[in-house]
Every structure is written in structure tokens, then in C-alpha cells.
Amino acid sequence: QVQLVESGGGLVQPGGSLRLSCAASGFTFSSYAMNWYRQAPGKERELVAAISNDNISTTYADSVKGRFTISRDNAKKMMYLQMKNLKPEDTAVYYCNARLLAWSYWGQGTQVTVSS
Question: What is the pLDDT of residues 23-69, one digit of tens each?
């Protein structure tokens, strides 16, 4: 049974930091590219950051470059998103996604709220 479980969300003040985690099980984690998406109220889901299956390449949305860092640990079947200098516009539900060819799996999401 495939599972992706996000954790680490919460309420943080502008300028603060959070680290999101995604625990994977039920599939060959090291074969899948991994992604973080987010969806704010009334907006479409958007890709925030992506990392290749071999941990070599990463990509980021322009809005988070220099502030967010994606990483993964294939031995632990974990993915992370370190978020720094958070802004109110980063408020959203953050989703973990695994993708390989036609296969795509999603977590249930974790809420991140940036507010004073």
C-alpha cells in the first residue's frame, strides 16, 4: 500500500522557518522523482520544488528560490523541504508527490500558515 505522509506544518510568523517532512512507503522510493506542491485557498495547486530520484538535480519555483531547500534521504525513504524567511504568501497546504512515468502518488497535505 502506497503511503506518503507529510508532517511539520504549522503557524509561523513572517521571517520564520519550518521544515516539512514526507515519509514514503509501499513503493520503490529511490526510483521516483519527488516533488513538493502547494495550494492556497482559491488558487491552483503549484509546484514548489522538485528533486530527482538520484538526488542530483533540483528545481524551484521562482517565488521560493533562495528561501526553500528540497532534499531527500533514499535510505530512510524521506523527503524534506526546509523553508526559511517565510512570507504570508507562502500560506498554503503543502503536498508531497512521487512521480515515475505514468505513476503519481500524493500525500494528504500539511497546512503552513504564515501570519503575525
Answer: 999 999 999 999 999 999 999 999 999 999 999 999 999 999 999 99
CB 2 within 8 A of CB 103: no
Cell of 113: 500558515
pLDDT tens for 73-110 read: 999 999 999 999 999 999 999 999 999 999 999 999 99
> In degrees, to the nearest 5, what angle opens at C-alpha 84 toward C-alphas 81 and 90?
80
